[in-house]
Amino acid sequence: MAIFVIASLAGGSSSEELVVFCAASLTGAFGEMGQIYEDENGVDVMLNFDGTQAIRTQVEQGAIADVFISANKKHMDALMAEGFMDNDTVSIFTENRMVVIVPADNPADIQSFSDLAEPGVMIITGVKDAPFGSYTLQVLDKLANDSTYGPKYREAVMSNVISQETSVSHLVSKIALGEADAGFAYQSDISPELSEQVSKVEIPDQYSVVAEYPLGRLKESENPDQAARFIEFVRSTEGRAVLEKYGFQPV
Protein backbone atom coordinates (compact mmCIF):
# COMPACT_ATOMS: atom_id res chain seq x y z
CA MET A 1 0.00 0.00 0.00
CA ALA A 2 1.26 3.45 -0.81
CA ILE A 3 2.32 5.76 1.98
CA PHE A 4 1.07 9.30 1.74
CA VAL A 5 3.00 12.00 3.56
CA ILE A 6 1.38 15.41 3.50
CA ALA A 7 3.61 18.24 4.61
CA SER A 8 1.49 20.83 6.44
CA LEU A 9 2.17 24.51 6.59
CA ALA A 10 2.52 25.97 10.04
CA GLY A 11 0.45 28.96 9.01
CA GLY A 12 -2.49 27.06 7.54
CA SER A 13 -3.49 25.45 4.26
CA SER A 14 -2.17 26.62 0.93
CA SER A 15 -4.31 27.06 -2.15
CA GLU A 16 -1.71 25.16 -4.21
CA GLU A 17 -0.93 21.45 -4.00
CA LEU A 18 1.94 19.54 -5.55
CA VAL A 19 1.58 15.76 -5.88
CA VAL A 20 4.83 13.79 -6.13
CA PHE A 21 4.95 10.04 -6.85
CA CYS A 22 8.23 8.86 -5.41
CA ALA A 23 10.25 5.63 -5.14
CA ALA A 24 10.10 4.18 -1.61
CA SER A 25 13.88 4.24 -1.17
CA LEU A 26 13.68 8.06 -1.20
CA THR A 27 11.24 8.27 1.72
CA GLY A 28 13.61 9.90 4.20
CA ALA A 29 15.26 12.31 1.78
CA PHE A 30 12.06 13.48 0.08
CA GLY A 31 10.12 13.65 3.32
CA GLU A 32 12.63 16.29 4.37
CA MET A 33 12.82 17.98 0.97
CA GLY A 34 9.04 18.13 0.70
CA GLN A 35 8.85 19.94 4.03
CA ILE A 36 11.62 22.38 3.07
CA TYR A 37 9.98 23.15 -0.27
CA GLU A 38 6.61 23.67 1.36
CA ASP A 39 8.03 25.99 4.02
CA GLU A 40 9.89 28.04 1.42
CA ASN A 41 7.15 28.23 -1.22
CA GLY A 42 3.81 28.01 0.57
CA VAL A 43 2.73 24.94 -1.42
CA ASP A 44 1.15 21.81 0.06
CA VAL A 45 3.40 18.91 -0.95
CA MET A 46 1.79 15.48 -1.09
CA LEU A 47 4.28 12.63 -1.38
CA ASN A 48 3.14 9.18 -2.49
CA PHE A 49 5.87 6.66 -1.61
CA ASP A 50 5.81 3.09 -2.92
CA GLY A 51 7.83 0.69 -5.03
CA THR A 52 8.58 2.26 -8.40
CA GLN A 53 6.73 -0.50 -10.23
CA ALA A 54 3.65 0.25 -8.09
CA ILE A 55 3.60 4.01 -8.64
CA ARG A 56 4.17 3.46 -12.37
CA THR A 57 1.08 1.24 -12.43
CA GLN A 58 -0.91 3.91 -10.60
CA VAL A 59 0.00 6.46 -13.27
CA GLU A 60 -0.86 4.03 -16.07
CA GLN A 61 -4.24 3.41 -14.45
CA GLY A 62 -5.11 7.09 -14.39
CA ALA A 63 -3.73 8.52 -11.15
CA ILE A 64 -2.96 12.22 -11.52
CA ALA A 65 0.35 13.58 -10.20
CA ASP A 66 2.75 16.38 -10.98
CA VAL A 67 6.18 14.76 -10.58
CA PHE A 68 7.31 11.15 -10.98
CA ILE A 69 10.54 9.94 -9.38
CA SER A 70 11.84 6.48 -10.24
CA ALA A 71 14.55 4.28 -8.72
CA ASN A 72 15.63 3.10 -12.16
CA LYS A 73 15.47 4.10 -15.82
CA LYS A 74 13.37 1.12 -16.88
CA HIS A 75 10.09 2.31 -15.37
CA MET A 76 10.68 5.94 -16.31
CA ASP A 77 11.52 4.95 -19.88
CA ALA A 78 8.27 2.97 -20.06
CA LEU A 79 6.19 5.97 -18.93
CA MET A 80 7.99 8.17 -21.42
CA ALA A 81 7.33 5.72 -24.27
CA GLU A 82 3.67 5.47 -23.26
CA GLY A 83 3.24 9.24 -23.39
CA PHE A 84 2.75 9.93 -19.68
CA MET A 85 5.84 12.10 -19.17
CA ASP A 86 6.86 15.52 -20.38
CA ASN A 87 10.00 13.93 -21.78
CA ASP A 88 12.05 17.11 -22.00
CA THR A 89 11.91 17.44 -18.21
CA VAL A 90 13.24 13.94 -17.44
CA SER A 91 16.82 13.55 -16.20
CA ILE A 92 18.97 11.54 -13.79
CA PHE A 93 19.38 13.50 -10.57
CA THR A 94 21.10 11.11 -8.12
CA GLU A 95 22.63 7.66 -7.76
CA ASN A 96 22.64 4.90 -5.16
CA ARG A 97 24.52 1.66 -4.54
CA MET A 98 23.46 -1.80 -3.45
CA VAL A 99 24.68 -3.38 -0.21
CA VAL A 100 23.89 -6.54 1.73
CA ILE A 101 22.33 -5.80 5.10
CA VAL A 102 22.19 -8.13 8.11
CA PRO A 103 20.67 -7.83 11.59
CA ALA A 104 23.00 -6.14 14.04
CA ASP A 105 23.75 -9.41 15.86
CA ASN A 106 24.37 -11.16 12.50
CA PRO A 107 22.95 -14.56 13.59
CA ALA A 108 24.10 -16.35 10.41
CA ASP A 109 27.62 -14.87 10.75
CA ILE A 110 27.57 -13.41 7.23
CA GLN A 111 31.14 -12.25 6.59
CA SER A 112 31.52 -12.74 2.85
CA PHE A 113 29.41 -13.28 -0.25
CA SER A 114 30.23 -16.99 -0.18
CA ASP A 115 28.25 -17.18 3.08
CA LEU A 116 25.07 -16.17 1.27
CA ALA A 117 25.15 -19.44 -0.69
CA GLU A 118 25.43 -21.66 2.40
CA PRO A 119 22.37 -23.93 2.90
CA GLY A 120 19.93 -22.64 5.50
CA VAL A 121 20.78 -18.95 5.25
CA MET A 122 17.55 -16.93 5.10
CA ILE A 123 17.68 -14.14 2.51
CA ILE A 124 15.20 -11.46 1.44
CA THR A 125 15.31 -9.77 -1.97
CA GLY A 126 12.99 -7.59 -4.01
CA VAL A 127 10.61 -8.86 -6.66
CA LYS A 128 12.27 -8.73 -10.06
CA ASP A 129 10.02 -5.88 -11.28
CA ALA A 130 11.08 -3.66 -8.37
CA PRO A 131 14.26 -1.71 -9.13
CA PHE A 132 16.09 -3.04 -6.06
CA GLY A 133 15.10 -6.58 -7.03
CA SER A 134 16.41 -6.08 -10.56
CA TYR A 135 19.66 -4.57 -9.27
CA THR A 136 20.08 -7.56 -6.93
CA LEU A 137 19.86 -10.01 -9.84
CA GLN A 138 22.47 -7.97 -11.73
CA VAL A 139 24.83 -8.17 -8.75
CA LEU A 140 24.32 -11.94 -8.45
CA ASP A 141 24.99 -12.36 -12.18
CA LYS A 142 28.30 -10.50 -11.82
CA LEU A 143 29.29 -12.68 -8.87
CA ALA A 144 28.32 -15.86 -10.71
CA ASN A 145 30.43 -14.83 -13.70
CA ASP A 146 33.52 -14.66 -11.48
CA SER A 147 35.38 -17.95 -11.06
CA THR A 148 35.71 -17.20 -7.34
CA TYR A 149 32.00 -17.96 -6.98
CA GLY A 150 31.14 -19.90 -10.13
CA PRO A 151 28.07 -20.32 -12.35
CA LYS A 152 26.01 -22.10 -9.66
CA TYR A 153 26.38 -19.23 -7.19
CA ARG A 154 23.25 -17.32 -8.20
CA GLU A 155 21.09 -20.44 -8.03
CA ALA A 156 22.47 -21.28 -4.59
CA VAL A 157 21.75 -17.81 -3.24
CA MET A 158 18.26 -17.66 -4.77
CA SER A 159 17.43 -21.05 -3.23
CA ASN A 160 17.93 -19.38 0.16
CA VAL A 161 15.43 -16.59 -0.56
CA ILE A 162 12.48 -16.83 1.83
CA SER A 163 10.68 -13.64 0.77
CA GLN A 164 10.60 -11.23 -2.15
CA GLU A 165 9.35 -7.76 -1.27
CA THR A 166 7.71 -5.12 -3.44
CA SER A 167 9.21 -2.24 -1.45
CA VAL A 168 12.75 -1.92 -0.12
CA SER A 169 11.43 -0.32 3.07
CA HIS A 170 9.57 -3.56 3.84
CA LEU A 171 12.78 -5.56 3.35
CA VAL A 172 14.81 -3.30 5.63
CA SER A 173 12.16 -3.48 8.36
CA LYS A 174 12.19 -7.29 8.26
CA ILE A 175 15.98 -7.45 8.52
CA ALA A 176 15.95 -4.96 11.41
CA LEU A 177 13.40 -7.19 13.20
CA GLY A 178 15.56 -10.27 12.65
CA GLU A 179 13.07 -12.02 10.37
CA ALA A 180 15.88 -13.05 7.99
CA ASP A 181 19.66 -13.34 7.98
CA ALA A 182 20.44 -11.02 5.08
CA GLY A 183 18.88 -8.85 2.39
CA PHE A 184 19.91 -6.82 -0.62
CA ALA A 185 19.09 -3.13 -0.16
CA TYR A 186 20.45 0.33 -0.95
CA GLN A 187 23.21 1.93 1.08
CA SER A 188 20.87 4.88 1.68
CA ASP A 189 18.45 2.58 3.53
CA ILE A 190 20.71 2.41 6.58
CA SER A 191 19.48 5.55 8.26
CA PRO A 192 20.92 6.80 11.57
CA GLU A 193 17.79 5.42 13.25
CA LEU A 194 18.51 1.93 11.87
CA SER A 195 22.28 1.92 12.33
CA GLU A 196 22.00 0.08 15.66
CA GLN A 197 19.62 -2.52 14.22
CA VAL A 198 21.32 -3.47 10.95
CA SER A 199 24.85 -3.73 9.62
CA LYS A 200 26.01 -3.75 6.03
CA VAL A 201 28.37 -5.80 3.91
CA GLU A 202 29.81 -3.66 1.13
CA ILE A 203 29.62 -4.98 -2.43
CA PRO A 204 33.05 -4.60 -4.13
CA ASP A 205 33.11 -2.30 -7.13
CA GLN A 206 33.63 -5.12 -9.63
CA TYR A 207 30.30 -6.66 -8.61
CA SER A 208 28.43 -3.49 -7.77
CA VAL A 209 25.57 -1.93 -9.72
CA VAL A 210 24.92 1.80 -9.73
CA ALA A 211 21.24 2.64 -9.27
CA GLU A 212 20.28 5.68 -11.34
CA TYR A 213 17.30 7.79 -10.25
CA PRO A 214 15.44 9.87 -12.88
CA LEU A 215 12.68 12.39 -12.20
CA GLY A 216 10.41 14.40 -14.43
CA ARG A 217 7.09 16.19 -14.83
CA LEU A 218 4.01 14.24 -15.83
CA LYS A 219 2.05 15.49 -18.86
CA GLU A 220 -1.21 15.54 -16.90
CA SER A 221 0.28 17.69 -14.14
CA GLU A 222 -2.33 20.09 -12.77
CA ASN A 223 0.40 22.41 -11.50
CA PRO A 224 3.17 22.30 -14.14
CA ASP A 225 4.94 25.49 -13.06
CA GLN A 226 5.26 24.30 -9.47
CA ALA A 227 6.36 20.89 -10.72
CA ALA A 228 9.17 22.55 -12.69
CA ARG A 229 10.20 24.59 -9.66
CA PHE A 230 10.20 21.51 -7.43
CA ILE A 231 12.42 19.62 -9.89
CA GLU A 232 14.77 22.62 -9.96
CA PHE A 233 14.86 22.58 -6.15
CA VAL A 234 15.71 18.85 -6.06
CA ARG A 235 18.64 19.49 -8.41
CA SER A 236 19.83 22.58 -6.51
CA THR A 237 22.71 22.72 -4.04
CA GLU A 238 20.19 22.60 -1.19
CA GLY A 239 18.45 19.55 -2.61
CA ARG A 240 21.72 17.73 -3.29
CA ALA A 241 22.82 18.35 0.30
CA VAL A 242 19.70 16.60 1.59
CA LEU A 243 20.25 13.66 -0.75
CA GLU A 244 23.87 13.27 0.36
CA LYS A 245 22.77 13.45 4.00
CA TYR A 246 20.65 10.34 3.37
CA GLY A 247 23.41 8.42 1.61
CA PHE A 248 22.68 9.20 -2.03
CA GLN A 249 25.46 10.11 -4.43
CA PRO A 250 25.62 13.17 -6.67
CA VAL A 251 25.50 12.68 -10.43
Automatic annotation (TrEMBL):
Keywords from the named record: Metal-binding, Signal
Pfam families: SBP_bac_11
Record keyword Signal present: yes
Signal peptide span: none
Cross-referenced InterPro entries: ModA, ModA/WtpA
The organism's place on the tree of life at top rank: Archaea
Name the record gives this protein: Molybdate ABC transporter substrate-binding protein
Species, as recorded: Candidatus Methanocrinis alkalitolerans
Gene name per UniProt: modA
